[in-house]
Design brief:
single chain, alpha/beta, TIM Barrel, Alpha-Beta Plaits, 2 domains, 8-stranded parallel β-barrel, 15 helices, disordered C terminus
């Protein structure tokens, strides 16, 4: 299993002076192309699902494929919900299989964004996930008037960045370079001060087009994740248009293969440029695997079977809504002579959920009000998945 803890992945990049690429998964061709490139370059990678694009893709349908690809990959992979717009979206991501959340606060006031960020961080940390955001636009430009006119906003100060991290508890801080770089420059001395002031990995947007020297200076000063933005979409669209015009007889499958190949080529180019190539094995050795936990309860009841079914139905709805709970199964023994008649199987996204679930007010209320009074004879055990025994199909070496 190469789905790994995002804290560890970014920490390794931060300490070793390179940046992990975060690439938007816009469809199955993108997913296959990103993983193929990461494996061919031996590079860790972040699979990014951007909430702003959910109207064009079914998040809940594509996430099982994303999670499965991450688990089967030969390199470290993390899964990020990007552009998280609400507390509800953050909770949804904990159930879907993400292990990182990035909040886009550019459209909110700073105070409102910080309040939202604190709630998202609380959810994320209760589920073992990494969470990040930005204190507005920490861009670098030689003229504040240029920043105003370009719509980029006034760059946040080093002190504001440090205060933001302290107030929110984020695990990584998002920075942005101006999308229009007419008179802009990167103030590396200031970036160095930001790095030492916040002491968390930095995530960069709009890095496409920067020189190799600039990128090396950025990663040396704390930038540990770079968002590819629209780069993959642009090259895929260009390839699709070219192939459609030049080869009008090509099948849909052939056109999609062209898209996948172009995505693979572009991701490979970027991970080499950002320093991730050749880092996969080392990173994997320093990253904890991201594993689920099965919370198992078997019990006998002192009430009627109808009452037990009613109680379990209510519980499935209540407990299934708690952050980090991925699935709730309620069951009844097939064998009449079984030592325990009923069971709960509650799948947690991560071992951290064991404690956050235990103290969650909805769990405590349901357990005290409905479950414990009717199930005095019960056993509860938490099981962590055993490494190497997950039921994933073997990889096809020829597909690499």
């Amino acid at each position: 299993m190469a789905l790994v803890d995002m804290h560890d992945m970014l920490g390794h990049a931060y300490r070793n002076g390179y940046a992990v690429g975060a690439f938007d998964v816009l469809g199955m061709e993108f997913l296959a192309g990103i993983i193929a490139a990461a494996e061919s370059c031996d590079s860790p990678v972040v699979l990014s699902l951007n909430e702003s694009r959910f109207e064009h893709s079914d998040f809940d349908s594509i996430m099982p494929a994303v999670e499965g690809a991450a688990q089967r990959a030969a390199v470290p992979v993390a899964i990020l919900l990007d552009g998280c717009a609400s507390y509800e979206s953050a909770v949804r991501s904990t159930r879907a299989g993400c292990n990182g959340i990035a909040v886009d606060g550019r459209k909110a006031s700073l105070d409102d964004h910080i309040e939202q960020m604190r709630h998202v961080v609380e959810v994320a940390h209760g589920c073992g996930m990494a969470a990040g955001g930005g204190a507005g636009n920490i861009a670098w430009t030689d003229d504040a008037n240029v920043a105003r006119k370009s719509g980029e906003g006034i760059p946040a100060s080093v002190e504001e960045a440090a205060a933001y991290v302290q107030r929110t508890g984020v695990d990584f801080l998002a920075l942005a370079l101006p999308a229009r770089r007419g008179g802009a420059f990167v103030d590396f001395e200031r970036l160095k001060r930001v790095k030492h002031a916040v002491n968390v990995p930095l995530r960069l947007r709009n890095a496409i087009g920067l020189s190799h020297e600039h990128l090396q200076a950025l990663t040396a000063n704390g930038v540990a994740m770079i968002e590819a933005g629209a780069a993959l979409s642009d090259v895929a669209t260009e390839r699709l248009r070219y192939d459609s015009a030049a080869y009008s007889e090509r099948s849909y499958a052939a056109l999609m293969k062209g898209v996948r190949d172009k995505v693979t080529e572009e991701v490979a180019r970027l991970v080499r440029l950002w320093g991730g190539a050749g880092r996969g094995l080392q990173s994997l050795g320093e990253c904890r695997p991201w594993k689920p936990v099965e919370h198992v309860i078997v019990f006998n009841s002192n009430t009627t079977e109808e009452a037990v079914h009613d109680m379990m139905g209510e519980g499935a709805a209540v407990l299934g809504a708690i952050p980090g709970v991925r699935h709730v199964f309620t069951g009844q023994a097939l064998q009449p002579e079984a030592g325990y008649r009923y069971c709960w199987l509650v799948r947690f996204a991560h071992p951290a959920v064991v404690e956050s679930y235990r103290v969650h007010p909805d769990h405590q209320s349901f357990a005290d009000r409905r479950f414990r009074p009717s199930a005095p004879d019960r056993i509860s055990i938490d099981f962590l998945e055993v490494e190497g025994h997950a039921a994933h199909p073997p990889r096809n070496p020829s597909a690499r």
